C-alpha cells in the first residue's frame, strides 16, 4: 500500500476576499501535494476557512451581515480561489461545519480530562486582528497613546471569566520536542525564534470567551465559546476524522506530515498546537513549515491595509502557469518575496518561453519535418549526449530532497539549469547542419533532446500542471506514463512511436496583452 502523506495550508479568515498571500500559500502547498502524488504517495491535501471569532463578528457587524452570512459569502470566494489557482485539494474544511464542532468538543474534553483546563478570569491584552493574547512586555505603547502587539496590530484590554489551558506545564516537553525532532519547525530561523520564545517561559493560555457567542461552545458550559485558535488548529484533525473513528477512511492520515503556514502564525502552530495535542494524548504533526510574506514591489499587502492584489486578476492577466511558476521560482520558499509586473514578465519570458519553450519548439518541429513525425532512432551516445541525459536523470533525487525541505525554488532552479544546458547542447550539436551531412547523428541529437524534455516535463507537472501536460502531449506520453516512476530508463522514449503535431506551449507574454 502506498505511503500516506497529509499536508495542509493554514485556513484563511473569510473576513474579506482572498489576496495574493492566500493564493501563494495554496499554490506552494498544491505543488508539494502534486509532487508527492506523482512520487507515488497516497496524498491528502487540505485547505479551508477559519470562520469563528471576534474578528469575523466585528467585520460582519460593520457590513450589516450576520457572521454566518459573511462566512458563507467569502468562504465561497476562497473555494473559487483554490480552483482558479489549480488547487488539487482533496477537501475544503469550514470551521462552521458540524463535523468540526464535534472534533473541537472532543479534543477539549480530552484536555480537560487530562487536568489541563481550569476556570479563572483573564485580564490582559488582546489583538483582534491577530486573534492573539499578548503579555504586556510584548506590546509597545506608541507616542499617540495607542498600544500595539509584536506584529504591529492594535491591542485592547480585556477582562472576563475564562477557561485556561495549562500551557506553562508544556515548556519542557516542547523544548524536548524541538530538540529530539530538529525538523519539526522549518526553516531554521523560525525554529530558533520559537525555541527562544519557549525558553523565555510560557504563561497559561486563556482558551475561552464569554463576551460573544460566534464560536464553538465549551462542552458543559455553553456560556463560553472556545478561543478561536483552539477551534482553528483543530481543523487539521477534524478533516481526518481520527478522533471520531480511528478506523475511518481518512483516520490513517493523522498525524499530518506537513502544515504549511505563513511566518506570522508560527507560535500558534509550533507552541500551542503541539501542547494541545500532547495534553489530549494525540500524535503530533511531523513538520510545520513557515513561508515568508509577499510584498507588492516591497510593500506589505493585507486586507486591513487595503492594497490587496486580487489573485483572480493576476491569473487572468498572466495565465495560471506563468503566475504559479513565477511565485515558486522567484521567491525562495521560506523567505519574503517581491512581486511586480516586470518581474513576472521577465522571469517567465526568459525561462518558460525562451529556454524551455524554444527548445521544445525547435526540436519537435525538426522531428515533425525530418523524422516522419515519430520519435527518431538513435545511434551510439557520445559523451555530450550522455552528459545531458545524466543531468536530466539526476534531477529526481535532488528534487525529492528539496521537496522534503520544502525548497520548491531549488527544484525549479535545478530543472531550469538542465534546460539551459540542453539548449547549449542543442546549439552546439547543430542538428540543422547535421541534416545535410549526417542524418543518423541528427536523429540521435533530436532523440536526446526530446528525452531530456520528457524528463523535465514530468518533473514540471507539480508547478505548471497545464503546460507540462501539454508538453507531455506533444511528446506522445500517455496519461499512465507521467508519474515519477516513468523517469526511469525503462520508460525512455521509444523510437518509431508516432508524435502529434507540435504546438507552441509557452508563448511569450506580450506587453500589449496587459493593461498593467
Ligand atoms: O492567519 N504573504 O488566516 P489569514 C504570504 N485564520 N502569506 C500571507 C500573506 C502575505 N502577504 N498574508 C497572509 C490566519 N498570509 C488564520 C490561520 S490556521 C489554523 C488559522 C498567510 O487569512 C498567513 O500567514 O490571516 C496564513 O498562513 C494564511 O495566509 C492565512 O492567513
UniProtKB/TrEMBL annotation:
Predominant place of localization: cytoplasm
Family according to the record: Belongs to the class-I aminoacyl-tRNA synthetase family. MetG type 2B subfamily.
InterPro entries named in the record: aa-tRNA-synth_I_CS (IPR001412), Anticodon_Met (IPR041872), Met-tRNA_synth (IPR014758), Met-tRNA_synth_2 (IPR023457), Methionyl/Leucyl_tRNA_Synth (IPR015413), MetRS_core (IPR033911), Rossmann-like_a/b/a_fold (IPR014729), tRNAsynth_Ia_anticodon-bd (IPR009080)
UniProt KW keywords: Aminoacyl-tRNA synthetase, ATP-binding, Cytoplasm, Ligase, Nucleotide-binding, Protein biosynthesis
Catalysis performed (reactions): tRNA(Met) + L-methionine + ATP = L-methionyl-tRNA(Met) + AMP + diphosphate
Record's protein name: Methionine--tRNA ligase
Source species of the chain: Fulvimarina manganoxydans
Record carries keyword Ligase: yes
Subunit and interaction comment: Monomer.
Catalytic activity, EC: 6.1.1.10
SUPFAM superfamilies hit by this protein: Anticodon-binding domain of a subclass of class I aminoacyl-tRNA synthetases, Nucleotidylyl transferase
Motif stretch ('KMSKS' region): 300-304
Pfam families (UniProt xref): Anticodon_3, tRNA-synt_1g
GO molecular function, one term: ATP binding
Function: Is required not only for elongation of protein synthesis but also for the initiation of all mRNA translation through initiator tRNA(fMet) aminoacylation.
Protein's GO biological process: methionyl-tRNA aminoacylation
Subcellular location: Cytoplasm
Amino acid at each position: 500500500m502506498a505511503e500516506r502523506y497529509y499536508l495542509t495550508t493554514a485556513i484563511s479568515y473569510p473576513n474579506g476576499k482572498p489576496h495574493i498571500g492566500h493564493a501563494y500559500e495554496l499554490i506552494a502547498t498544491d505543488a508539494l501535494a502534486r509532487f508527492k502524488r506523482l512520487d507515488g504517495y497516497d496524498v491528502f491535501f487540505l485547505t479551508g476557512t477559519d470562520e469563528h471569532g471576534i474578528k469575523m463578528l466585528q467585520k460582519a457587524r460593520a457590513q450589516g451581515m450576520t457572521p454566518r452570512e459573511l462566512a458563507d459569502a467569502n468562504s465561497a470566494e476562497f473555494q473559487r480561489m483554490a480552483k482558479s489557482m489549480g488547487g488539487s485539494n482533496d477537501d475544503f474544511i469550514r470551521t462552521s461545519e458540524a463535523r468540526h464542532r464535534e472534533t473541537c468538543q472532543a479534543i477539549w474534553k480530552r484536555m480537560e480530562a487530562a487536568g489541563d483546563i481550569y476556570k479563572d478570569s483573564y485580564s490582559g491584552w488582546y489583538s483582534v486582528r491577530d486573534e492573539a493574547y499578548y503579555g504586556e512586555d510584548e506590546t509597545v505603547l506608541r507616542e499617540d497613546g495607542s498600544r500595539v502587539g509584536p506584529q504591529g496590530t492594535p491591542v485592547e484590554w480585556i477582562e472576563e471569566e475564562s477557561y485556561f489551558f495549562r500551557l506553562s506545564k508544556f515548556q519542557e516537553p516542547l523544548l524536548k520536542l524541538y530538540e529530539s525532532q530538529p525538523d519539526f519547525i522549518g526553516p531554521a530561523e523560525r525554529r530558533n525564534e520559537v525555541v527562544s520564545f519557549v525558553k523565555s517561559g510560557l504563561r497559561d493560555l486563556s482558551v475561552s470567551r464569554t463576551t460573544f457567542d460566534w464560536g464553538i461552545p465549551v462542552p458543559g458550559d455553553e456560556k463560553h465559546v472556545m478561543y478561536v485558535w483552539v477551534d482553528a488548529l483543530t481543523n487539521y484533525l477534524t478533516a481526518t476524522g481520527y478522533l471520531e473513528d480511528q478506523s475511518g477512511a481518512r483516520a490513517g492520515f493523522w498525524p499530518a506530515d506537513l502544515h504549511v503556514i505563513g511566518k506570522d502564525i508560527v507560535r500558534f502552530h509550533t507552541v500551542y498546537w503541539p501542547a494541545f495535542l500532547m495534553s489530549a494524548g494525540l500524535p503530533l504533526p511531523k513538520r510545520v513549515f513557515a513561508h515568508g510574506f509577499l510584498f507588492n514591489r516591497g510593500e506589505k499587502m493585507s486586507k486591513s491595509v487595503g492594497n490587496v492584489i486580487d489573485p483572480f486578476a493576476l491569473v487572468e492577466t498572466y495565465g495560471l502557469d506563468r503566475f504559479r511558476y513565477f511565485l515558486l521560482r522567484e521567491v525562495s520558499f521560506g523567505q519574503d518575496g517581491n512581486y511586480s509586473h516586470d518581474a513576472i514578465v521577465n522571469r517567465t519570458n526568459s525561462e518558460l518561453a525562451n529556454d524551455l519553450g524554444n527548445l521544445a519548439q525547435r526540436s519537435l518541429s525538426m522531428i515533425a519535418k525530418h523524422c516522419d513525425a515519430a520519435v527518431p532512432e538513435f545511434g551510439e551516445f557520445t559523451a555530450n549526449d550522455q552528459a545531458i541525459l545524466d543531468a536530466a536523470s539526476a534531477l529526481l533525487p535532488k528534487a525529492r530532497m528539496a521537496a522534503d525541505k520544502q525548497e520548491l525554488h531549488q527544484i525549479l532552479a535545478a530543472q531550469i539549469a538542465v534546460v539551459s544546458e540542453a539548449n547549449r547542447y542543442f546549439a552546439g550539436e547543430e542538428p540543422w547542419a547535421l541534416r545535410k551531412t549526417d542524418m543518423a547523428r541528427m536523429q540521435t541529437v533530436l532523440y536526446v533532446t526530446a528525452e531530456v524534455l520528457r524528463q523535465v516535463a514530468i518533473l514540471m507537472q507539480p508547478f505548471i500542471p497545464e503546460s507540462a501536460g501539454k508538453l507531455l502531449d506533444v511528446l506522445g506520453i500517455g496519461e499512465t506514463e507521467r508519474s515519477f516512476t516513468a523517469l526511469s530508463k525503462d520508460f525512455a522514449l521509444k523510437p518509431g512511436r508516432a508524435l502529434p503535431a507540435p504546438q507552441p506551449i509557452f508563448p511569450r507574454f506580450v506587453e500589449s496583452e496587459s493593461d498593467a
